[in-house]
Design goal:
Rossmann fold
């Protein structure tokens, strides 16, 4: 399905019935990374797996920033009349989730994020090198986004009132101390560092994430 929001057209796939869950993918991906998770969650939830702007089947744009991406999702929720969704965001999707919880504190029921940095310095040196190399070769707006954004402050994180689960792999390309600090700055948050997992090993078409989410939701 497609929907026009915030001057772009977003593609999304909806499945299941029950309390709503939004799934937001990472940079250079699309909703397809959630095929396994969507299927399992849809037994108890209405699941909206969304392609963010300039990704998948959604509108292409010349410039990217996280505030626009956050506004897309805020309007998506409003236009479809989705009441108090749970949001799971992976990597870039988690950054969007944080910004939504900061700027629209009453919208979400719960927030789950994984592999998220609040500024480019939160990434380890080798991933930053690869992103810079990719940008040098391609001038990709997606790579530029990761090199220049986000810029979320501890004070902004302190405004979040949504119950939040912060996840990361012990081998993530986000620095562990950065993830720990992120969770410490969010009131009413829970932190889980998953032993042996990389940035996306427990996320991308993995069965592991479902149990983690359901436990956090108390289901």
């Amino acid at each position: 399905m497609h929907i026009n929001v915030n001057n772009v057209e977003l593609y999304y796939k909806v499945s299941g019935q029950g309390s709503p869950v939004l799934l937001l993918h990472g940079n250079s991906e699309d909703h397809g990374i959630f095929k396994v998770l969507s299927k399992k969650l849809s037994a108890d939830h209405t699941v909206y797996a969304i392609d963010s702007r300039d990704h998948g089947r959604s509108s292409k744009v010349h410039h990217l920033n996280y505030i626009d991406k956050m506004n897309d999702i805020a309007e998506f929720i409003e236009v479809l009349g989705i009441e108090k969704p749970i949001l799971y965001g992976f990597s870039d999707g988690g950054i969007i989730g944080l910004l939504l919880a900061i700027h629209h504190p009453d919208v979400l029921d719960k927030l789950i994020i994984s592999g998220v940095n609040t500024n480019p310095d939160g990434l380890k040196s080798f991933p930053i090198f690869l992103i810079k190399l990719h940008y040098f070769l391609t001038r990709s707006n997606k790579m530029k986004l990761m090199l220049t954004q986000p810029n979320i402050t501890p004070a902004e994180l302190g405004k979040i009132v949504t119950p939040t689960l912060v996840l990361a792999g012990s081998k993530d390309f986000v620095k562990e101390e950065h993830t720990v600090a992120l969770a410490k700055n969010i009131p009413n948050s829970e932190l889980r560092i998953l032993s042996g997992e990389t940035h996306g090993s427990y996320v991308i078409n993995s069965k592991k994430l479902y149990g983690i989410i359901k436990t956090f939701l108390g289901e």
